[in-house]
Amino acid sequence: MNNIFGDLKKLSPKQKVLLSKLSELRSTGTEICESNLAKRVSLIVDELAVPVGLLISREGRIAHVILGTKQRLYLPDLGRFRLDEVKLRRLRLVVFWPEDNLNWCLETGVPVSEDKISSAQSSNRSPANRFYPVLHSDFVTDLEKLRLDSVLLVAVSKGTPKSVVLATHSIDDSLSKKRSSNIDRNYYSNINNIEIDFGEYITELERFKRSNKIDAKEINGELAVLVGAYKTSQKDYNYSIDELHELARSAGLTVAEVFIQRRRSLDPRTIIGRGKIEELMLKALDLGADLLIFDCELSPSQLREIAKITEHRILDRSMLILDIFAQRAKSSEGKVQVELAQLKYNLPRLTDKDSGLSRLTGGVGGRGPGETKLEVSRRRVRDRIVLLEKKIEHLSKQRQLRRRKRTDRGVPIVGLVGYTNAGKSSLLNSLSKSDVFAEDKLFATLDPSSRRMRFPDEKEVIFVDTVGFIRNLPNELMGAFRATLEELAEADILLHIVDVSNTEIKRHIEVVNKTIQELGHEEKPTILVLNKCDLLSEPEVKSIQNIVGGIAVSALTRFGLTGLITEIIELMNSDLELRDPGAFLEYDATRAEDNDF
Fold first, then answer.
1. Which residues touch 395 (CB under 8 Å, ≥6 apart)?
2. Rounded to two decimals, what is the model's pTM?
3. For residue 258, what is the enclosing H or E element?
4. Helices 332-346 and 317-328, axial angle in degrees (round to 10)
5. What is the rounded CA–CA span in Å between residue 527 and residue 460?
6. Per the structure, how many domains does the chain have?
7. 240 HSE (CA, 13 A, CB side)
8. Which percentage of the chain shows pLDDT scores above 70?
9. Which domain holds residue 263?
10. Helix or strand or coil: residue 546?
């Protein structure tokens, strides 16, 4: 009786024996369900008046017998299964269901009413052959989520198997073809009419899945599905989801699919609704993705609710940004700041399932009623936060000492600020002939960099490169990086770097200006620098300048740097006369001139 599942309390000893004997039967490897086996199970279903399910292995052995209720049939726990496996679980589900409790449809899948069935009934109570049982969505979910080989639903009437519906995974050689479902349904008036060679079908299906699975060597990191639910216009959410796509790329992920939903109001529990979460989960399973990234900040309750529905790993936009910062942090200070931000963000999101943030107490002195696992996790996180905040405070004092020395020497400081990936580090390299790490990714620079530059009159200027800004930057991140952003407090001038080739240039300028204001630096002299002008034509750059102003430069070709330096010196109210503003740059002979793009 170990492989029989369901409520057996109401069964008589004889009925229990009948069920136990089912597990001793075998089916063939070529037939989905042998006709003799179907007849024996149908007789039992007629006696019990409830559905009975069989989980059959590919070798034909009945692994589990499942006793359902009049409305539902719950599968036993089959254990976890690798989400990215090409092969299936090697189990098929065959369900025998009393026809009185079934819904019916035409062969096209269109449901039909009881009136239509009654008018087409034959002399017995069975519906006419042109009606077939409707496959419940739960079985489709089990087929995809549990990676079953197939699902067969058999209508039982008076102890006899009648019409059936067979659900199988699709085998479609057209990869570009858009499908609303990856499940094929086939309807048969009798179980004996199924002519599929099950062994050949499975072999072909797994060959197809292997041939169409994205080669792991071609994947740059994990596969992820991006999820966006928006109440705004298409233009606004296109910008938002594009930025999330770029964040995912910067985190080393490969985006397998983008899932967008327009809603009048977001679902307070799951953002997109439980049904859409299940649809999304099945889509991710089919793609082999095990990571879902939401383009919003999930509340602790929303995160828990979504986690109950799917076993996929869930990230929101803020978590993704924090992960990027964790990858980019190189200095000990940066690592401390990232860890602090992550702990503060994750603390309210800790649940009983979170075992990775602490070790359980145990052994002598650790038993008995005391703290629960969740309480231990939260307490240790709080203790760690206190420790990291003390380290941050100590690091902040060290920075203050270094800044005081610079101030005492009277060295002017120019702070580089701007939206992430605007080219701040590249511009710093061009100005100072240094090799600060720069890459075409969001948040390529995390730790602040300072470079000294000497003017022709032996005057020095210190350029400070800071972390890039982004819209909706988590408050935890802003708080943890206050020591880094304190560099801007001592800056005499701010260079606001903008990617002039980005179509959202106005939005980026607004985000940076708002952040500067929140930091309390809106009164500092600021120069707007339109970087990457080499990516646009001269008329296009002029048109943008007429709208937002600013100095056009190119960190890559070094175009416009002379004019930028002249502007910096004039803004410093220096009493120096710049004899040769471009001399210290030592341009190459092939450098771009100020009138070239």
1. 333, 336, 483
2. 0.61
3. strand 254-262
4. 160
5. 19
6. 4
7. 23
8. 74
9. 217-324
10. helix
**CB within 8 A of 262, min separation 6: which ones?**
229, 230, 231, 237
CA distance 378 to 367: 19
Dihedral angle, C-alpha 167, 168, 171, 172, nearest 10 °:
30
Average pLDDT over residues 18-46: 84
What CATH number is attached to the domain comprising 473? 3.40.50.300
- Contact between 54 and 65 under an 8 Å Cβ cutoff? The reply is yes
97 with 112, same domain? Answer: yes
Give the tens place of pLDDT for each residue, 97-141: 998 888 878 766 666 665 555 555 544 444 445 678 888 888 888
**Strands (E) located in 303-401:** 313-316
59 burial (CB, 10 Å; 0-12 / 13-18 / 19+) is exposed
Distances (CA, A) of 321 to 215, 256, 315, 473: 27, 19, 10, 8
Contact 294/227 with Cβ under 8 angstroms?
Answer: yes
Same-domain check for residues 120 and 63: yes
Residue 484 and residue 568 in one domain: yes
pLDDT digits 0-9 by tens, 15-25: 888 888 887 77
What is the Cα 498 distance to its own chain's centre? Answer: 28
SS3 (DSSP) at 233:
coil
Q: How far apart are the first and last CA of the chain?
A: 81
Contact 491, 527 (CB under 8 A): no
The structure tokens listed for 105 are 């449809």
Residues in the chain: 597
Say which residue, 38 or 573, is predicted with more confidence.
Answer: 38
Cα gap 325→446, rounded to integer Å? 7
| Contact in structure between 340 and 293 (CB atoms under 8 Å) | no
State how far the Cα of 211 lies from the Cα of 113, in Å rounded to an integer: 42
Q: Which long-range contacts (CB under 8 A, 24 or more apart) does 256-259 make?
A: 256/214, 256/223, 256/224, 256/225, 256/284, 256/287, 256/288, 256/289, 257/225, 257/226, 257/283, 257/284, 257/287, 257/289, 258/225, 258/226, 258/228, 259/225, 259/226, 259/227, 259/228, 259/283
| Cα–Cα dist 136/51, whole Å | 13
Give the C-alpha separation, 137 to 155, whole Å: 16
DSSP string across 90-107:
SEEEEEEEEGGG--EE-T
258: in domain: yes
Domain boundary among 187, 212, 237: 212
Backbone angles phi and psi of 187, in degrees to 5: -110, 140
Average pLDDT score over the chain: 77
Alpha-carbon Rg for the chain, nearest whole angstrom, is 33
